[in-house]
Amino acid sequence: MADADENLPILRLEHSTSEIAGCQHAACKKKAAKIAKGELRIGKYQYYEPGDKWITMWRHWRCAPTPQIKLLKQLADEVPENVAGFEDISPESQEQVRLAFENDKIADNDFTDIRPDLIKSSRGGRSNNVTGYRVDTAPSGRAGCRNPACKDAGVKIGKGELRLGLVTDFQGHESLVWKHWKCATLEEIAACKELLEQDSFDGLNLLPEEYKSIVLESIESGQALEPPVLEDLVKAVKPRKSRAKKAKKEDGTDDDELAGTPSLDLTGDAHPTQAESKENPKAKAKRGRKRKGEEDADESVNEVVAPQKKQGHIVKEATEEADPTEARIAALANIMRTKTAQSSEKRS
To answer: How far is CA 163 from the centre of its chain?
Structure first.
């Protein structure tokens, strides 16, 4: 059997720190009734055999049975002020305890006295409307920490870090907000302890052993301890790759400089560039100022579009008796050859 914590009283009173704990009274247990946050409750520290541990089991104050009231009275030497937690509850709740001592039973079976303002103080702020808690390791580094200091500084929870999830109720819908485990408040650690005692602390058994040990040690000490850094879980920052510069050709020209240069087929005829092809699949002959020696030949061509020739096709030379159309094609072919030869001379 596990050893009990001698520092914890057998019976104690408090205003519930959350609405997670269920009431152990038979009727409430059957309905799975929870104890409202801030409501007066009585806790009994006892051995829990299925988990082989000592835990605190809670009831609504109004659900406390007569034997429990008599035991409370006996432990306090019949002095209400000696009851553990008596000084922290509201004056109205204190009066109900005195009446119970006088009658050896609960005086008002409808008494609730919900007082969230009397919940034990905590460090670092408290989240409202929390209905549950869970622990896990952050799968990414996108979630922000809800601790006020981290939130104001825009601090994120890094990938692989131990974090505490707060299940909240927002307009009737459940949502999760997150905190670094080390940023959990005393109240939140106390709520996690209640869940652990009920074997309903979600995510605990899925943690790496190092994180699980920290969570259990934190719950035992009553405050969040800083977890170790697990290198294999923490996100490694990958350096950004710089864009590769365009490789230049051996002759010092790059692809952009050659983009406008027409290519040749086996006949020596020029093909249109890629840009010209997109503009017009039947590539147009270049316009512009004509070079000397080309003016006379070009007058009869009138910028006629040359059809693309198949590989190995031989162009007939123009004669005076030849067809006018064939003459124009031959003239255009000569011009294209001249331009290609001049371009080759410039590059060499």
So the answer is: 12
What are 13's strand-pairing partners?
42
Confidence of residue 289 (pLDDT cuts 50, 70, 90): low
When the pLDDT of each residue in the chain is averaged and rounded to a whole number, the result is 75
Instruction: Identify the three-state secondary structure at position 312.
Output: coil
Span 1-15, average pLDDT: 81
Domain count, the chain: 3
Q: Between residues 64 and 9, which one has the greater pLDDT?
A: 64
Q: What gap in Å lies between CA 250 and CA 24, rounded to an integer?
A: 85
User: Is residue 131 scored above 50 in pLDDT?
Assistant: yes
Residue 343, C-beta contacts closer than 8 angstroms, at least 6 positions apart: 261
Which residue segment(s) compose the domain that 74 sits in? 11-118
Q: Does the residue 246 lie in any domain?
A: no
**Tens of pLDDT along 291-311?**
544 444 444 444 444 455 444
Please state, in angstroms and rounded to a whole number, the distance separating the CA atoms of residues 305 and 287. Answer: 12
Same-domain check for residues 38 and 111: yes
Give mean pLDDT, residues 80-92: 92
Element (H, E) at 186: helix 186-197
Residues 6+ apart with CB under 8 A from 289: none
43 touches 56 (CB < 8 A): yes
Assigned domain for 248 exists: no
Question: pLDDT grade, residue 180 (50/70/90)?
Answer: very high
Q: Please tell me whether residue 122 adopts helix, strand or coil conformation.
A: coil
For 68, phi then psi, to 5°, come to: -70, -35
Q: Which residue has the tokens 């299925």?
A: 50
Is the model's pTM score more than 0.90?
no
Task: Mark whether 165 and 113 lie in a shared domain.
Answer: no
The neighbour count for residue 76, using CB atoms within 10 Å, is 18
212 vs 206: CA distance, rounded Å: 8
How many Å apart are CA 109 and CA 87, to the nearest integer? 22
The Cα 279–Cα 281 span in angstroms is: 7
Q: Which residues 6+ apart lie within 8 Å of 107 measured at CB? A: 96, 99, 100
Q: What does the alpha-carbon distance between residue 244 and residue 205 come to, in Å, rounded to a whole number?
A: 48
**In the prediction, which pLDDT does 129 show?**
65
